Description:
The protein is an all-alpha fold. Helix content is 71%, strand content 0%. The chain has helices at residues 2-9, 13-27, 37-56, 61-75, 78-86, 96-106. The radius of gyration is 14 Å and the shape is globular.
Amino acid sequence: WGAQAAARAVDDPAAKAAARAAIAAAGAPYTHPIETPHQINHILGPAAYAVQALALSADDEAATMEKELHWAIAAAPEEIRRIVAKMPGRKPSKGAFHALLYRLDVAPRR
């Protein structure tokens, strides 16, 4: 709950994304077993928010985003890859954060 309060209280976008990464990580173990595209948000949300936080705090946001995204994909444990493969894939949607989630979803399926 503290991370949720911090996300609401802070004005810095990178700090807000970092707090949201903590919120998502705390909730990830409670992902329900119903296989829906929305569940991908809960599984990959912590990584997506962490990548976003690092990119927003960097001088070169785009380069950092790519570097951290590639690292997150490469570092994904096999168990996460298996879980993602069982879930229906996300559809591309609008917004930078949803594009990031989509890329994190598509990569382990290859």
